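Troubleshooting log. The previous structure file for this entry was overwritten by mistake, so regenerating from the original sequence record. Sequence copied from the archived sheet and checked twice against the printout by T.R.
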Amino acid sequence: MYMWEFLVALGREEAFERAYGSDGEWVALFRRAPGYVRTELHRDQTNPRRYVTIDYWESREAWEAFRARFAHDFEAIDARCAGWTTAETEIGRFDPAG
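Regenerated output below.
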């Protein structure tokens, strides 16, 4: 699981949610890769411009293969979406416990 925090620029929330939501262009790209499971988008209850995404992959290897195979497409979407956020932070990469 890969978790990211985003602070979205004022007035860009709708565009951000469309791109990062379950039917957005990020998920469309991820779905092209073997090993992708799902993505969750969550909005902070106290700061409506703060979001987290949680991307689930079958394994680290599946995620790494995706990044290698789709690096160009990944960077293109990332560049298009860059103006919608004021900050982007990787919270971490997690494995199931137990």
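Residues 2-92 form a domain with the Alpha-Beta Plaits fold (CATH 3.30.70.100). Archived copy saved in two places this time.
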